[in-house]
Amino acid sequence: MEPREIQGIYGGIGGRRGNRGVPAMRAEVIDLSEYPLFTLSIARELLPRVWEILRRGNPIKFYGSLERLQLLRFVSGMEFDSIERSVARHEPVMVQEVLRTFEPLEGKVLIDATCGLGGHTKALSEGVGPRGLILAIEKDPESLQRAKEKIDSANVLFYRGSFAEMKEAVKELGIGPVDGVLFDLGLSSFLLEGSGRGFSFRRDEPLDMRFDPSSGRPASYYINKLRVEELESVIRLLGEERFARRIARAIREERDAAPLERTADLNRAIERAVRRQHLLKAKMRVYQAFRILVNDELATLKEGLLQALQVLKQGGIIAVISYHSLEDRIVKTLSKLPGVEALYKKPLVPSDEEIVRNRRARSARLRAIKKVGDIDEALFDRIVGAVVPSPLPRPAE
């Protein structure tokens, strides 16, 4: 069973209204799991923030354990509209926007290049119907197995591998030119909460961060081996973190005492370098940086996009959901290529309702392009390669 989480909703959703007497459209999130210890005094310290949000008429969506939610309810006297214990599940992002991008769907051959737990794959397979076909590609073996268990459709073929192997997969399975390719570059709830590989700073796990644990080096290898200047470069370039130098030096000081092997070790170094008000974003960016480094994500994305264009038929569509500016910048450059045109002038973003329902959607952007001519590989390399940070630091063996 996947990890459980407690969600409490107060105000504006399910009946209760904000203090202004009108329904609030968008919930604000308070994550109680951010605190290593959640004491009575910390619960009391949160109250001014809670009251300020409610004063504005907004509902609040809480995350964390039932015990923490009950403690907050005790000190505040609040009665929540809903408190539910539910299995943490991965909800695919922007499903309706994806389906509309590939319409008409009936009978099409599509590739889900990032199958994950199969949310988009399932929706697309239902859309293309029995005369269509979906090729679902996934690098993580555990996620792929879960997707196979979830989807029992004759029109879905699964392939374990990277989307940078797309041409090989298409050739091996004898599919031929395809009508569309989808990339969702986000992490599934399984990788964050259930894989035990250190993708989330909120869990005490080994610093692995590999999508495929059978290949490559874990994050701990780079964290302990890179020189402090290289650490700073990784954190600044791939995490876009302004406190990169401080954090790199703190990592060096921590590892001088003992190797950093677990997320708690890396968290301690970040906490040593960054003030509390900047800590949450700093942790998110540092973990992003090392995950991108470990999996060589940006170079892999570049290769995956090139191969997607190569397996796409004329008039075919590539849709990409990205979650940070490094990915989005690469995808945006595609529309500058001869033989390619943008489907949308501006990226699509999730609705307010989806963000309330699925907080992981909050930073998502969907861009789509149509192939309208031949693709010059050398020109692709020059245009798209210009926005891919390279080469990334690697420790001397």
Report the span from N to C terminus.
40 Å
The value of Rg in angstroms is 22 Å
Q: The CATH topology of the largest domain, please?
A: Rossmann fold
- Helix and strand sequence: EEHEHEHEHEHEHEHHHHHHHEHEHEH
Q: What's the domain count? A: 2
Question: Structural class given helices, strands, pairing?
Answer: alpha/beta
Helix content: 40-55%
* Count of strand segments: 11
List the strand order in the largest sheet: 7-6-5-8-9-11-10
What characterizes the major β-sheet? 7 strands, mixed
CATH C-level class of the largest domain: Alpha Beta
CATH architecture of the largest domain: 3-Layer(aba) Sandwich
Structure description:
The chain is of the alpha/beta class and 397 residues long. It folds into two domains: 4-87, no CATH class; 90-397, Rossmann fold (3-Layer(aba) Sandwich), CATH 3.40.50. It has 16 helices and eleven strands. It is globular and about 60 Å long. Mean pLDDT is 86; it is low at 1-7, 11-25 and 79-88.
SSE layout and pairing:
Blueprint: E1 4-10, E2 28-31, H1 40-55, E3 60-64, H2 66-76, E4 82-87, H3 95-102, E5 109-112, H4 119-128, E6 133-138, H5 141-150, E7 156-160, H6 166-173, E8 178-184, H7 189-194, H8 219-225, H9 228-239, H10 244-257, H11 263-273, H12 276-295, H13 297-311, E9 312-322, H14 325-333, E10 340-342, H15 352-357, E11 365-371, H16 377-385
Parallel strand pairs: 2-3, 5-6, 5-8, 6-7, 8-9
Antiparallel strand pairs: 1-3, 1-4, 9-11, 10-11
Helix pairs in contact: 1-2, 9-10, 9-12, 10-11, 13-14
